[in-house]
């Protein structure tokens, strides 16, 4: 799929590909005003034994970018991954209501770190850099009925940590601390823009 913003950049030299099927990342990347395509990375996302959440996010972001770059060597490819870290334990996408309930019960009253990594790779130029944005999220001490009402209303089963901060999930929190505002949604745009400029793209 090709995104075609009105303000495209005629000086862009290489195609830009987002190595992700996430609609959240696609919508975020479109904010930069660059035309891009999307491609699904074929990457096993199973954590390695005793792999820390931050290391997992970094490894998967780079693996996704490299997997797509191998099929499109002349393009600049973005890979990204997000892992929620609860006391050193990685929390991924719940996918089901029951798992989402268990995640939110475990996170209530806790501070959770959301590790969002972004990697930019271009095989033709040899460019490969990865960056990480850490977001500290404090959850309220949620009652079981609050968790149930929230999940039925928003159904955030495709979100790491079972909460959408850009939606109703913001009511589950007491604070968010970060230096890259879109990182919690799935793609840290400040860091992404820095990497794209370093890779040779001129942003509007």
Task: Provide a brief overview of the structure.
With 204 residues, the chain is α+β, with helices and mostly antiparallel strands. The chain is 29% helix and 25% strand.
List keywords for this structure.
204 residues, alpha+beta, Maf protein, eight-stranded mixed β-sheet, 8 strands, elongated
Description:
The protein is of the alpha+beta class and 204 residues long. It has a single domain, classed as Maf protein. It has helices spanning 23-30, 53-71, 97-107, 144-154, 189-199, and strands at residues 2-3, 16-18, 36-38, 76-86, 89-91, 111-122, 127-139, 173-177. Strands 1, 2, 3, 4, 5, 6, 7 and 8 form an eight-stranded mixed beta sheet that branches. Strand 6 (111-122) and strand 7 (127-139) form a beta hairpin. Helix 3 packs across helix 4. The radius of gyration is 17 Å and the shape is elongated. The two termini are 21 Å apart.
Oligomer: single chain
Number of strands: 8
What share of the residues lie within helices? 25-40%
Biggest sheet overview: 8 strands, mixed
| CATH topology (level 3) name | Maf protein
Low-confidence sequence ranges: 1-12
Q: What's the architecture in CATH terms?
A: Alpha-Beta Complex
Name the helix and strand elements from N-terminus to C-terminus, one letter apiece.
Answer: EEHEHEEHEEHEH
Distance between the termini: 21 Å
> What is the alpha-carbon Rg in Å?
17 Å
The average pLDDT is 92
- What count of domains describes the coordinates? 1
SS class: alpha+beta
CATH class reads Alpha Beta
Q: What shape does the CA trace take? A: elongated
Number of helices: 5
């Amino acid at each position: 799929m090709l995104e075609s913003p009105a303000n495209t950049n005629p000086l862009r030299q290489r195609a830009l590909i987002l190595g992700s099927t996430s609609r959240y990342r696609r919508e975020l990347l479109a904010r930069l005003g660059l035309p891009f395509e999307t491609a699904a990375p074929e990457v096993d996302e199973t954590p390695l034994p005793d792999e820390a959440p931050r290391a997992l996010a970094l490894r998967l972001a780079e693996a996704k970018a490299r997997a797509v770059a191998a099929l499109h060597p002349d393009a600049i490819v973005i890979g990204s991954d997000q892992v929620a870290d609860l006391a050193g334990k990685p929390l991924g996408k719940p996918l089901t209501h029951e798992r989402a309930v268990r995640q939110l019960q475990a996170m209530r009253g806790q501070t959770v770190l959301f590790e969002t990594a972004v990697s930019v790779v271009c095989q033709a130029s040899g460019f490969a850099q990865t960056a990480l944005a850490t977001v500290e999220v404090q959850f309220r001490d949620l009652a079981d009925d609050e968790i149930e009402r929230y999940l039925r209303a928003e159904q955030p089963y495709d979100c790491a940590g079972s909460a959408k901060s850009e939606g109703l999930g913001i009511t589950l929190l007491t604070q968010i601390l970060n230096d890259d505002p879109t990182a919690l949604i799935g793609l840290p745009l400040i860091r992404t823009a820095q990497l794209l400029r370093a890779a040779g793209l001129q942003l509007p």
